[in-house]
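FAQ

Q: What does a record look like?
A: Structure on top, sequence underneath. For example:
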């Protein structure tokens, strides 16, 4: 009974801490969403990751970089285009096609000049801007963050990013002044950010025929960004299950050995 009260008190404390966090940061607490990859046995929805990649390429890539992800990661174990036929992701034709769709600056050549070439699976996703100064100049002084680890870098992770994408509100509170170039979103600290709502109904046409609703697109792009932040999540979880299973079997063997050794000893 005492342990039950302690457990209930702990849950209440967690709930209150979440409310306190929202109040102190001046933003609305993110809405909880069930993710396919959540939990110790959760896995990525491959189709959702693929659709999220499409959204990144067609919508997000014009402003946001993805510096820590290489094209070959898309075809590696756990990637959206993983294929048993092509265990080496560098030979995966889908990965090669995606990479070739980008022009990569390389060099210098023998003459000392820089040049552009089609992307290779070994290349990283190129940044849309040459440097931070150019990025700020093209976005009203705001620096678009790199999205490689955005889900891990923000409190409440995937729930926060999804809520932010869906949280643009046209009804601005009377005590909030929205200056030119700013947009109101109650899920963002302070409520004002330079980025306009990046998603709108039908902004993309999914290649698999899925209806591109706001809910669907926000879930897909966040799923992709969650994968980008932890592309080896599934392998890590599988390893964890194997370790726990090993330890469980080892504990049983140790207990059996203990009983046999001390069976004839009087206590």
């Amino acid at each position: 009974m005492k342990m039950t009260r302690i457990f209930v008190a702990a849950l209440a404390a967690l709930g209150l801490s979440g409310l306190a966090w929202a109040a102190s940061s001046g933003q609305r607490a993110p809405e909880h969403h069930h993710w396919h990859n959540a939990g110790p046995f959760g896995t990525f929805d491959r189709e959702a990751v693929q659709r999220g990649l499409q959204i990144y390429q067609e919508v997000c890539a014009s402003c946001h970089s993805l510096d820590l992800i290489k094209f070959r990661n898309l075809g590696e174990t756990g990637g959206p285009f993983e294929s048993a036929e092509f265990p080496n992701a560098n030979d995966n034709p889908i990965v090669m096609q995606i990479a070739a769709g980008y022009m990569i600056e390389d060099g210098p050549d023998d003459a000392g000049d820089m040049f552009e070439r089609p992307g290779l699976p070994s290349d990283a996703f190129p940044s849309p801007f040459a440097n931070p100064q150019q990025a700020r100049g093209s976005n009203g002084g705001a620096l678009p963050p790199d999205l490689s680890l955005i889900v891990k870098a923000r409190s409440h992770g995937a729930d926060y990013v999804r809520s932010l994408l869906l949280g643009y509100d046209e009804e601005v509170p009377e005590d909030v002044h929205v200056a030119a170039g700013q947009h109101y979103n109650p899920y963002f600290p302070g409520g004002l950010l330079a980025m306009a709502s990046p998603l709108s109904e039908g902004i993309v046409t999914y290649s698999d025929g899925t209806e591109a609703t706001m809910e669907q697109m926000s879930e897909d792009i966040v799923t992709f960004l969650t994968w980008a932040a932890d592309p080896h999540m599934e392998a890590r979880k599988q390893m964890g299950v194997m370790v726990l299973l090993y330890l469980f079997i080892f504990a049983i063997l140790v207990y059996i050995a203990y009983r046999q050794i001390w069976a004839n000893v009087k206590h």
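Q: Is there anything notable about this one?
A: Strands lie at 103-106, 115-118, 183-184, 192-193.
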